[in-house]
Write a structure and sequence with these properties.
The complex is a heterodimer of chains A (428) and B (435). By secondary structure, chain A is of the alpha+beta class. Chain A has 2 domains: 222 residues, Metalloenzyme, LuxS/M16 peptidase-like (Cytochrome Bc1 Complex, Chain A, domain 1); 160 residues, Metalloenzyme, LuxS/M16 peptidase-like (Cytochrome Bc1 Complex, Chain A, domain 1). In chain A, 42% of the residues lie in helices and 21% in strands. In chain A, strands 1-2-3-7-4-6-5 form a 7-stranded mixed beta sheet. The N and C termini of chain A lie far apart (67 Å). Chain B has 2 domains: 227 residues, Metalloenzyme, LuxS/M16 peptidase-like (Cytochrome Bc1 Complex, Chain A, domain 1); 184 residues, Cytochrome Bc1 Complex, Chain A, domain 1, CATH 3.30.830.10. With 435 residues, chain B is of the alpha+beta class. In chain B, strands 1-5-6-4-7-3-2 form a 7-stranded mixed beta sheet, sandwiched between helices. A 5-stranded mixed beta sheet of chain B has the order 8-12-9-11-10, with helices on both faces. The two termini of chain B are 32 Å apart. Classes of the chains: A alpha+beta (428), B alpha+beta (435). Chains A and B meet through α2, α4, α10, β11 and α12 of A and α2, β6, α4, α10 and α12 of B.
């Protein structure tokens, strides 16, 4: 175990401080750690770059099928024995496949530490992939694909991805299609597992009631035996995102609309400026212009929002709402007008100061549970925000100038680049 | 602002049954306001929740949706803090907020840096009494709520089926009426309805204020007194809890919709709640978990693993209710199957299920229950939610704190007795969602 360095995090109230440490295991796995003695829980947040983007197209959905099988037994334990062991030890294990990564979390009650990490090791390194379990989980995914097709908002989101990401492989459904997941066999899963879970590809954050020497040994135990083969190539940048409008007709009293626009990678120097602009436009809950002008003043929607989606090496802005069929085009027009107003007039001094204050004040909410601390440590590494991010974050925000943010907005937000996916029965 | 009939797992431990669960401190003001504080100083953050002990329960005939409507309007500002001052202030300090309405309660919460606790207490107190509403506010918000109803119910066949099933299951009770309200009744709610509702019900006697996180009880008490002490409470709210008759017919409800690509079978049973007996309800909860909870339950083993009829089958018990509780079961068939056939399959199986309820399975579920309670303490909002919901449906703080003791006393015999009653229970409605 090597201790590389220690950073102290101080909140405004000096009685509250967290120590975050950068640790390395004997086989070279680096991870970030906060010792939190306030509760007898250890939480691990981890991710592997790649995710469903490395699915072969004729077997699209394999990443999702594999992660769905990770709590279905190990070489030593059948599926139901494994689940009973999880219950007996208060262990929680969740893995989910996403477009650019596999995200995971593991939690264990401190008194069951050894048993928990042994199960975690077994699950990650020696999954059972029993034929019968594969068939069962495959059927569950098929059901869930059909349920998604029956649900207006999920269907709209899938249609949006399909059109918006265009030729990029993010246009595919992470779950795959009934056809492609029917092509996957046990052998494929074993191979995919080996490729997807590589040692040089994992990012880990840990928080909880455990000593650093112990956690370093346990992280080595779980992740240390994974293979270290070729690095997964980075996901391609988005070069040809869709523009304009697409409509998918279905019979429903309300229509779901999603919109998209190019964004920025999380570690881009202008990302925080974009974040502030989005907060003011549609990200800030009850504060946003979309909320105030489309919901509060006009009553056209129940919920309307936009957010920044950050992927491994690129990002997009996505937003959406549902409204009755007769008001679809009116609401789209309102969104477009807000977008144009943002682009041409920028944001006001007051909006700017409020948004800065929000981002400074909201950060401590990350420190209220072990899993949210672990996740924060993991995310900062995933997006390569730097070892000094926690110290630098306030400085980045404080250094932003209104003029500079408005310049970025006027250059960046373009009405011509907006794409709208309309799913339902819009009238007029 | 959302509405939920959500399920909070009560956070109870049994391994150390002498230990209090939350170590919550509590006091009552002269005007009837209850204050509960759960101190936790790990991060400089506080969660404030206020729980009003009425939800759609209190609505008069023809006025369904009024409690939820009121919840939306509580964000419209007061004389001292007009328009969106409250939300603006909260955002500026980096906080977050929301609210929800259910059958038995309406709740509001904020999470924020602890240095602002006094201002947030003041703001929550202020809107209990000093809301300023305009007719225009009310009319526009009604449109928002209609859009909400369209989003949650009218565009979702599965939600329409649930709404219909509940209306049959609870023929004489507000649990049979949608929390959001029937569309035609929402459309007719007026400015006067709202104002009368607010003046009559929003007062300290009907509220429990919970502060969880980096705040001390003594400080909280002082602040809460400062901002609430002058409020008067009118005559005590009378909670009318009508009983439902036993169902004499077996009811299968069907909803066909061309957008449904995956059929679903569901069933809701009317049953006891924690209010009638905590011990029996815990036993029932454990029993339903053994029978239908998650992917290692008895039903899952039988119908998903062995018979392969369903891709998924499961269910849960919700007993945190002032009136009756309910048990919800659902199944997702792999292939086309007549829904009446599912009824027979399930009923035949349940008759002989007793021998599969074993000591070992009970032990596992009790362990999980205990560990879930530990996880429930990892955060600041979860304890406030659990205490607020339990208090509001009529469970005492003492019972909540000592839950672990009751839990440790639950044995296999009690669980079997509850399941036997459940299997004999004829008060249910079955629903099927089809293409």
């Amino acid at each position: 175990m090597k201790l590389i360095f220690v950073i102290l995090l101080f909140f405004f109230n000096s009685s509250h401080s967290f120590e975050y440490e950068k640790l390395e295991t004997k086989s070279g796995i680096k991870f970030w750690f906060v010792e939190d003695k306030s509760i007898p829980i250890i939480s691990v947040s981890f991710s592997f770059r790649g995710g469903s983007s490395i699915d072969f197209s004729e077997k699209n959905g394999i990443s999702n099928l594999m992660t769905s099988l990770m709590d279905e037994g190990t070489s030593k334990l059948t599926s139901s024995d494994f689940k009973n062991q999880m219950k007996l030890n208060g262990m929680r294990l969740n893995l989910s496949s996403q477009k650019d990564k596999i995200d995971g979390s593991f939690q264990i009650i401190a008194s069951q530490l050894e048993q928990g990490f042994e199960l975690f090791y077994q699950a990650l390194n020696h999954p059972r992939f029993d034929e019968e379990d594969i068939e069962r989980v495959r059927k569950q995914i098929i059901s869930s694909i059909k349920l998604d097709e029956s649900d207006l908002s999920t269907l709209a989101s899938n249609k949006f991805n399909q059109f918006f990401f265009n030729e990029h492989n993010f246009s595919r459904n992470v779950k795959g299609s009934i056809n492609t997941i029917s092509n996957i066999d046990r052998y494929d899963l074993i191979n995919f597992h080996k490729n997807a879970f590589q040692k040089n590809n994992v990012i880990i954050g840990v928080a909880g009631n455990i000593k650093k020497k112990k956690i370093t040994e346990l992280i080595e135990k779980v992740f240390g035996n994974l293979e270290n083969s070729e690095k997964i190539p980075p996901v391609k940048k988005f070069t040809r995102l869709a523009k304009g409008e697409e409509t998918y007709k279905m019979k429903t009293p309300q229509t779901s609309v999603l919109f998209g626009h190019p964004g920025l990678a999380r570690n881009n120097e202008n990302f925080f400026a974009l974040r502030i602009a989005n907060y003011i436009f549609g990200g800030g809950g009850f504060q946003s212009r979309l909320y105030k002008n489309v919901r509060e003043k006009k009553g056209l929607v129940y919920s309307i929002y936009s957010y920044l989606l950050s992927y491994d090496n690129d990002g997009v802005i996505v937003g959406g709402f549902q409204t009755r069929n007769k008001s679809v085009y009116q609401t789209i027009k309102n969104v477009k007008n807000e977008w144009k107003r943002l682009q041409s007039k920028g944001i006001s001094r007051k909006e700017f100061e409020n948004a800065k204050a929000y981002f400074k004040g909201s950060f401590t909410r990350n420190f209220t549970s072990t899993i949210s601390i672990a996740r924060l440590l993991q995310i900062v590494q995933y997006f390569d925000l730097g070892e000094d991010y926690f110290e630098k974050r306030d400085e980045i925000i404080n250094n932003l100038e209104l003029k500079e943010v408005n310049e970025i907005i006027s250059k960046f937000f373009s009405s011509d680049e907006l794409f709208f996916m309309i799913v339902g029965e819009p009238e007029g | 602002m959302k509405l939920v009939a959500f399920l909070l797992v009560l956070l109870f431990s049994f391994e150390s049954s002498s230990k209090k669960l939350f170590n919550a401190k509590s006091t009552n003001l002269d005007n009837g306001l209850t204050l509960v504080v759960v101190e936790n100083s790990r991060a400089p953050v506080v969660a404030q929740m206020i729980w009003y002990n009425f939800g759609s329960s209190i609505e008069k005939r023809g006025k369904s949706g009024l409690a939820h409507f009121m919840e939306h309007l509580m964000f419209k500002g007061t004389k001292k803090h007009p328009k969106s001052f409250f939300s603006d202030f909260l955002s500026k300090v980096g906080g977050s907020e929301n609210a929800f309405t259910s059958y038995d309660y309406t709740a509001y919460y904020q999470i924020f840096p602890s240095q602002h606790v006094e201002k947030l207490i003041e703001l929550e107190a202020d809107r209990m009494k000093n809301l300023t509403l305009t007719k225009k506010n009310v009319e526009i918000e009604k449109q928002v709520i209609l859009e909400e109803r369209f989003q949650r119910i009218e565009s979702d066949p599965s939600a329409q089926l649930d709404e219909s099933m509940r209306s049959i299951l609870f023929p004489n009770h507000y649990y049979g009426r949608p929390i959001i309200g029937w569309r035609h009744e929402i459309e007719n709610l007026s400015y006067k309805d709202v104002i009368d509702f607010y003046k009559e019900l929003y007062n300290p006697q009907n509220a429990t204020l919970i502060l969880s996180g980096d705040v001390k009880f003594d400080d909280a008490k002082k602040l809460v007194k400062k901002y609430y002490k002058d409020y008067k409470s009118p005559i005590k709210l009378e909670q009318i809890n009508l009983e439902n008759p036993d169902l004499k017919t077996s009811t299968n409800v069907e909803l066909k919709n061309e957008n449904v690509k995956q059929p679903i079978w569901k069933r809701i049973y009317r049953t006891k709640s924690y209010g009638s007996s905590i011990e029996e309800s815990i036993a029932l909860d454990l029993g339903i978990k053994i029978l239908a909870g998650g992917t290692s339950s008895i039903l899952y083993e039988e119908f998903v693993n062995k018979k392969k009829i369903f891709s998924m089958i499961g269910g849960f018990y919700q007993g945190l209710a002032r009136g009756e509780g309910y048990i919800y079961l659902y199944a997702i068939p792999n292939n086309e199957i007549d829904h009446v056939k599912i009824n027979y399959l399930l009923e035949d199986f349940l008759i002989n299920v007793d021998s599969e309820i074993t000591e070992e399975k009970l032990k596992l579920e009790k362990k999980k229950y205990y560990y879930d309670s530990v996880y429930g303490m990892d955060g600041i909002l979860k304890p406030a939610e659990a205490i607020g919901e339990a208090l509001t449906v009529g469970i005492s703080l003492k019972d909540i704190e000592n839950w672990n003791k009751k839990l440790s006393e639950v044995n296999l015999k009690m669980v079997k007795k509850e399941l036997k009653e459940f299997i004999k229970n004829k008060n249910f409605v079955t629903g099927s969602l089809k293409n």
